[in-house]
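Researcher: Here's the sequence for the chain we discussed earlier.
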Amino acid sequence: VQLVESGGGSVQVGGSLRLSCAASGFTFEEIAIGWFRQAPGKEREGVSCIRTIDGRTVSADSVKGRFTITSDNATNIAYLQMNDLKPEDTAVYYCATTFSRGCGIWFGNYGIDYWGKGTPVTVSS
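Model: Thanks. This is the structure I predict for it:
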């Protein structure tokens, strides 16, 4: 199983980035996949999750209306479109997946089956 993130970088306040998570080694169509982030000195937190079988999503209140998670079952890639970025969005973003627990666990920070290595996002003013 592999989750490989890309798309992180540095951007100014108000800018946009799109993160990608390329998944392999498992059946992509029947899982929950999404993103966590960890800012310096803070605990890791759930950001957004999508259930690939029907496209249902959940997102943290702090990113609703700015971040959009999608998935492409043909290419086994999950995306996080991040708009109107703020300095508080600065963090390392991790792709994660759970095979059976669904997006309901996303904000409890437990039950994840696999993690990517992370991609850094820096938002400067």
